[in-house]
Amino acid sequence: MSAAGLDPHAALVEDLRGQVLEASAAGRRLTPVGGRTQLGWCRPDHDGRGGRGSLDLSGLRGVVEYEPGEGTVTAWAGTPWSELATTVAVGGHRLPADLCTRPGSTVGGVLASGRSGPDRFQAQALRHHVLGMQVLVGDGTVARSGGRLVKNVTGFDLHRLHVGARGTLGAILEVSLRLRPLPECEAVVALEATELDAALDAVADLVRAGARLQWGTLRPGASGPLLELGLDGRRSQVEQDAAAAAAALGSTATIAWDADAAVRREATRDMGCEDGYAWEVQGTRAAILSRAAGGCPQDSWFDLLSGRQLTSTRPSEAPGLRVRRLADAPTVPDRRGHAWEERIRSQLDPAGVFAMGSQQPADEEVSA
Amino acid sequence: MDRRCSAGGGPCVTGGWLEEVRSLVGPRGVVTRTSAVAYESDGLTMERGEGAAVVLPRDTAETARVMRVLARHGVPIVPRGAGTGLSGGATPVSGGVTIGTARMRGVLAIDALERTAHVQAGVVNADLSRATAPHGLFYAPDPSSQAACTLGGNVANNSGGPHCLLHGNTSRHVRGLVLVDASGEVIDLMPTGPDPEGLDLVGVTVGSEGMFGVVAEVLLNLQPLPETVETVLAVFPTLDAACDCVTDAIAARLEPSAIEILDRLTIEAVEDSVFAAGYPREAEAVLLVEAEGGAAEVDATVADLVALAERHGCMEVRRAQDAGERARLWAGRKGAFGAMGRVAPDLYVADVVAPRTRLREIVALSTEIARERGLKLANVFHAGDGNLHPNISYDRRDEDEVRRVLEAGRLIMEACIERGGSLTGEHGVGLEKQAHMCDVFGDDDLGVMHRVRDAADPERRLNPGKTLPVRACREARGTGLPTDPREVAL
């Protein structure tokens, strides 16, 4: 189909559509790729049938609309996450999730991966802040859902299906996000937890008491497990809350402020990049706190308040916990809702253009 | 054979499948003739319908058993909470069964560490916060109908409320669901961790207006009861000034939990009613603002808001001195729709969203559209998130007035969409805005929505004829019949 006369983004979308239609006709599979930083188990060029190609969205980049007075941003999916963060910071905003990304990670890739950062405890998962989307599904249809404003319940929120679908339901083309204000002040309360049980009990008590925490992680420190709690907001409030949280953790807890706090936050956040580990454990807050109380090995990282652990050693199964090998596709046939999910896939992608291929070996270098 | 009663005006409860259903839910689980009148409409009283029966199961398993019987007989199903919805989403369909959740009112578990509540779908919104208060927690979305509306209904509509400015609509608070699909299968979508295991089926179900299944149980996020709540009433000499103040507050990235505007007509109606809150009658508009959190952050936010209000010519600022005064101020706001009953027998409550940078313009335009048609329009709305509720009082016995009300409603909607707004902010599409979906979405967008609906309910028996236009938009726009067979099937 001719793309002459279209603006560059529309021409690119038309080209992507053509690739999907071609793949559909030829019975080939495609994996949408952005910055190629987080494909994991769904790597292009390997589907066990030798026919998987990539659908490159990295050219589809740029901010469509950033209106600081609305507190929202709309961007093409290939826009680097970090570039978007810089754009909205100029207007006093931050993106709705603070998560580990690699250089070049794109907005579409981040959303497709379904990741959230430790700050989801307070801010909620990233998927809750997607206001609308334009996607390309397996039969070549380009469709929108949602909108660009912070409040909108028009039609089905189909964008929710694409967040975390890892490109297996279609390619994300354009995204609208709700933004959060950049905080006036940031603090990190840290404790080298020699008595891990007591420290984690104190964290649970803080949560039950309604403490205004943004996030809480546990990672290996220089001389034992390092427990860190993040706070941000109005300076006068953060000063009080950080002091209270430090007091709850004990006399050896320290508080880092602003730039120092940001360094600590980024350090623990970036340990949450999945590609440093082989396994993920998710579960209730209670179950993850209980798991963490058993110790924090050198190869583990805990997002305590969200209920998530990353580790390189095969973790033991336990009630309330879900263990997954990161290299595995997250879809398992006996999962609840699986039949419904399969019907959605066959409706949106009858030829299986974006369908998953076979699993990759766990130790294979991923190159998303 | 199934049949409908020929006289009596209400649904008839005879027929093979109805007897089978009655044996499952007991005699009190099937609503008969006279009392079924209450089920003829939801809050959109202009749209009425009469189904074959109303069935009230007591739990998930019973719901599933009932729906399996209905599946065998191919009976359409309309899920219904308290019927407070304002878009006709729960209007009965001819020959169909309304599945009500009035007997599913159990709060099954509250977990203070997880900050969640597991509830049956028929729990009333306000009852949940009462149940969780002893745990130091509350449920944030607070539709004006919260004293009656159910959490299952809130899920279906992705309901909002004043405090969704800070906390977000229902969707942000739903952690898990148990859904009964059209075939009667129970789909357990309760979480096993913070991320969905596969596709986010919970997320896509919220706001699907009962077209994917009957929501039977919900796992909801709770918030800690705030240490401090400050409620402020700012009095403005003009509605424009109040709107501009809100636009500037959002641009300044202030984060109060609610910013509501009430205009003069609303104030008068409220002050003349049992909901009288002490709003100043001389005001052209008031802002009802609330901030919550720690004392220090609340003080800082309120100070910034008051300074902004003063820059916009605010005549007076009143701070609620205690919980009683705060409750009174909110009772006036939440009772505003009821208070309008004093102005005229019927009320049309519109629900559109304006870009927050264009509040003044769109509010003024709405008022003008109503004025040109000789209608009384009162504004009471969630200004902080741009969610306008122009209320038009009318008398349904006056056919011409009804015509003018509908015309004004349509023009306000179109004006809002033309200026980058949304078709609905929290009331949903239902019957009311179904045709207007074509103003927002194209055939391809709606086609994909239909396909996702078909994945959930291939026979299209769940809430048929609602939300999605039944014909392709190009047909509705009169530009010719579609040639793609898939579009014909829409």
Topology:
The complex is a heterodimer of chains A (368) and B (490).
Chain A lengths: L7 H19 L2 E5 L18 E5 L6 E5 L4 E5 L4 H9 L3 E2 L12 H7 L6 H4 L6 E7 L5 E5 L12 H4 L8 E8 L1 E2 L3 E8 L3 H13 L6 E7 L2 E10 L1 H15 L4 E4 H13 L8 E5 L1 H9 L6 E4 L4 E4 L9 E5 L12 H11 L20
Parallel strand pairs in A: 1-2
Antiparallel strand pairs in A: 3-4, 4-8, 5-9, 6-7, 6-8, 10-12, 10-13, 11-12, 11-15, 14-16, 14-17, 15-16
Helix pairs in contact in A: 6-9
Chain B lengths: L15 H10 L4 E2 L21 E3 L4 H13 L4 E4 L16 E4 L6 E5 L4 E5 L4 H8 L4 E2 L12 H7 L6 H4 L6 E7 L5 E4 L11 H5 L8 E8 L1 E2 L3 E9 L2 H13 L6 E6 H8 L13 E9 L1 H17 L4 E4 L3 H12 L1 H4 L6 E4 L2 E2 L5 H14 L3 E7 L4 E2 L1 E5 L4 H20 L18 H4 L2 H14 L16 H4 L8 H4 L2
Parallel strand pairs in B: 2-4, 3-4
Antiparallel strand pairs in B: 1-2, 5-6, 6-10, 7-11, 8-9, 8-10, 12-14, 12-15, 13-14, 13-18, 16-20, 17-19, 18-20
Number of spatially distinct domains of chain A: 2
The count of β-strands of chain A is 17
Largest sheet of chain B, described in full?
Answer: 7 strands, antiparallel
Radius of gyration of chain B: 23 Å
Given the helix and strand composition of chain B, which structural class is it?
A: alpha+beta
Q: Kindly report the greatest chain-chain contact and the residue count on each side.
A: A-B, 78 and 88 residues
CATH topology of the largest domain in chain B: Vanillyl-alcohol Oxidase, Chain A, domain 3
Written as H for each helix and E for each strand, in order along the chain, the element string of chain A is HEEEEHEHHEEHEEEHEEHEHEHEEEH
| Alpha carbon gyration radius of chain A | 21 Å
Supply the number of structural domains of chain B: 4
CATH fold name of the largest domain in chain A, please? Uridine Diphospho-n-acetylenolpyruvylglucosamine Reductase, domain 3
Low-confidence stretches of chain B: 1-13, 479-490
Portion in strands of chain A: 15-25%
Q: Can you walk through the features of this model?
A:
Chain A has 368 residues and is of the alpha+beta class. Chain A has two domains: 1-180 and 329-368, 2-Layer Sandwich (Uridine Diphospho-n-acetylenolpyruvylglucosamine Reductase, domain 3); 185-325, TATA-Binding Protein (2-Layer Sandwich). Helices cover 28% and strands 25% of the residues of chain A. In chain A, the strands form four sheets. Chain A has an eight-stranded antiparallel beta sheet with strand order 13-10-12-11-15-16-14-17, with helices on both faces. In chain A, strands 3-4-8-6-7 form a five-stranded antiparallel beta sheet. In chain A, strands 1-2 form a two-stranded parallel sheet. The longest helix of chain A has 19 residues, at 8-26. The model of chain A is unreliable at 358-368 (pLDDT under 50). Chain B has 490 residues and is of the alpha+beta class. Chain B folds into four domains: 16-100, Uridine Diphospho-n-acetylenolpyruvylglucosamine Reductase, domain 2 (2-Layer Sandwich), CATH 3.30.43; 107-224, Uridine Diphospho-n-acetylenolpyruvylglucosamine Reductase, domain 3, CATH 3.30.465.10; 228-418, 3-Layer(aba) Sandwich (Vanillyl-alcohol Oxidase, Chain A, domain 3); 443-488, no CATH class. Helices cover 33% and strands 19% of the residues of chain B. Chain B has a seven-stranded antiparallel beta sheet with strand order 15-12-14-13-18-20-16, with helices on both faces. In chain B, strands 5-6-10-8-9 form a five-stranded antiparallel beta sheet. Chain B has a four-stranded mixed beta sheet with strand order 1-2-4-3. The model of chain B is unreliable at 1-13 and 479-490 (pLDDT under 50). At the A-B interface, strand 7, helix 6, helix 7 and helix 10 of A face strand 9, helix 6, helix 7, helix 9 and helix 15 of B.
